[in-house]
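pipeline/complex-builder :: batch 7 item 3
reading input block
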Amino acid sequence: MSILSLKTVSKSFGSLKVTDDVSFEVPEGQALGIIGPNGAGKSTLFNLITGNLTADAGTIRFQDQDVTRVPAMQRCFAGVGRSFQIPQPFDHLTVFENLLVAASHGRALDEHEVEADCARILEQTELLPVANKPAGGLSLLQRKRLEMARALATDPKLLLLDEIAGGLTDAECVALIDTIRSVHARGVTIIWIEHVLHALTSVVERLLVLDFGKIIGIGDPEDIMSRPEVKEIYLGIEV
Amino acid sequence: MSDISTTPRYVVTTHTTASRIAATGAVILFLVLVMVPFFAGRGLIQDLFFILTMLVLAQFWNLLAGYGGLVSIGQQAFVGMGAYAMFGGVILAGMDPIPAILLGGVAAFLVAIPTAFFAFRLQGPYFAIGTWVIAEVMRLIMAQVKALGGGTGTSLPRSATREMWATEWIAGMLDVRNSAARDILTYWLALLLAAATIAGIYWLLRSKRGLALSAVRDNPEAAKSVGVDAGRMKWLVFLTSAFGTGLAGALIYVQKARISPDAAFSVTDWTAYVLFIVIIGGIGTIEGPIIGVIIFFLLQALLADYGTWYLFTLGIIGIVVMLFAPRGVWGLISDKTGIQLFPVRRRLSGGTLGEE
Ligand SMILES: Nc1ncnc2c1ncn2[C@@H]1O[C@H](COP(=O)(O)OP(=O)(O)O)[C@@H](O)[C@H]1O
Ligand SMILES: [Mg+2]
């Protein structure tokens, strides 16, 4: 059964069609990778799935509910968690409080019921040493970790990750892959936009290629990457 | 990582040593203030009444603007509606003025609902001006209500103030005249309202709604994505602050015993001064309005004889503080000393972080 399905979804900014008649489904528990050149519309696609933007046309279903016009907050309650490509921390809250607000509101629980879990997520994402620091003072790497940690705090069924591996050292990348794998192993469905292909392909079971807002291929990663039209686009993109 | 069974539990703390001392100090201060009428004269009681009621207005404006990001310059709408509802309860329905204060809070709350529907459609400066316009409209409407004195206003009936709840008992206990007993009663109510306001706002900030307020202020888009109901927070803050402001307005006018639309809906008295207090003291903190109201009172005592120069000086001081100490006097103090009397930070310790 698919947890997410998009049917002929489109979105334009002015005359620029950024999402062009996109349809695909994601089976529950799958890890799907999304690749494509800068400006292809990958982040916009996430914003449509999370409700930060509303589609102009088409239908988005999450767990058999039509969520096309449902606000972002309600999609979070339903189980959609996300990271932002450009980190959006709550600057004046500490790292721990960033997770607390996400966990307590996203899961509609009391703070004391989620404290331990937030601490565990901080451990897992290696943010424990900066737990009590205001998020506004974090380095870029820590901000990216916080994006994922805060998304995990809402206990998502579907986790959307937008370019979180860029600029990591090899060791950091391995740690990140470990974390994502362990989240995936718990049965969480993952969609991951990433330019760091080796990291992406070591986790995902399926790959989607986006170019000029259109899907130009979706399927087995190895098969997709060997297609000439994908190769052409991707020549020189891998970091 | 480490074995779960040997890892100490994580602990979340909010209190600090300073806040424990402050809490004890606050209780002592409250008790001392309760006792003031037993040894102080009427002048001091009236001064304290003024300070406490301005403090309540400042705390609620701070909740609205400092925590909720809703910079209103129309709080006089709720002072005025609260005061007029209290007058209406007394004059038209024959209520005792003291329970009629509650009516003031309820009335302010009720008019805040359509006000919010309108004002929430406006952003930034338009929101500010919108709230002011609404307050002006309410002033004009109340000036048409002949039963409550129309444009020139009216006074509470002598019988109502004379037989007001508990005044006779206070007059007997403290051996004072009826009018002094009324001042003492309203002073005690102001003290109660100020204490409840501070305790209530502190409680709100320490609840998960307090975290949500910060999150929405920092990043509304991300806040929605983690399940924070930004719209509901706005309503909560706006209605709470209208209710509290209405109670304060009604209480102020029980003490004044005379009302007119121009005075009850005065933008200078109920919003400009309140803004000054919060900005001078430090916006977005509970400590700020407390310090601010004391500074404001001292300045007023110092400069009251200078008429327009007084307002001019307040304006200059306000602008200088905004430019050079945007977080107010309390901001300077807490930056220097690190002290927070009403801490809201959730500190994580224990576990693999170790004890702190
Ligand atoms: N809010 C917006 N308003 C106008 N144009 C936008 C907006 N968001 C994205 N775009 C444009 O849409 C295109 C796709 O952007 P995006 O989805 O961020 O691409 P990607 O994530 O694949 O790099 C870009 O040309 C970008 O400039
Ligand atoms: Mg992008």
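note: The first strand of chain B starts at residue 10 and ends at 13.
queue -> next item
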